Amino acid sequence: MLANAEINYQTPQEYLDWEALQEFRHEYLDGQILAMTGGTIAHNLIGLNLATLLKSHLRGTGCRVFMADVKVKVALASSFHYPDVMVSCDDRDQEAVQFIQFPCFIAEVLSPSAEAYDRGEKFRRYRQLPSLMEYLLVDSNKMAVDLFSRNSQGRWELISYEEGDLLSLETINWECSLASLYEDVIGGKK
């Protein structure tokens, strides 16, 4: 979730230096810095469930799972974002310290205040990551998930999932029930 712009234009390096000293997270969009707002308990639980399930599945594969406090750099869009969950299997991200650059999967847990941004401008920027193959949007108010996958022609295709469905991520060869994703949240039981 984003709040209003806080300070004047900064270069990417000025942002990184400044952000490292901040108590709260900020995203960077074309020189503007935007404060991130807090999330709900449902938002947190869904993100934690997803990251835990992915971490368990990817253990020992060389892929790494990251949560909300790790930035992704979208160089072509001149932006830095904090995805709720992301996965990188790229060797170039193994030694990363400040940010990830080559994720294959990104997930955002939707909130009413940021849903339009996550579906619109943020996704437009994420699509500029050549490594990104799947983008997951998880509704925090009901059991509903939208998965955008890049096909072999480079176009993005949408698959929507609802309660009772089995979510499938081809990029990392993983499946889970929506009930597992929403465990302890909205009717989610294991």
From TrEMBL:
The keyword Hydrolase applies. SUPFAM superfamilies: Restriction endonuclease-like. InterPro entries: Nuclease_put_TT1808, Restrct_endonuc-II-like, Uma2. GO terms for molecular function: endonuclease activity. It holds the Pfam family Uma2. Keywords: Endonuclease, Hydrolase, Nuclease. Residues 13-177 form the Putative restriction endonuclease domain. The keyword Nuclease applies. This is Uma2 family endonuclease.
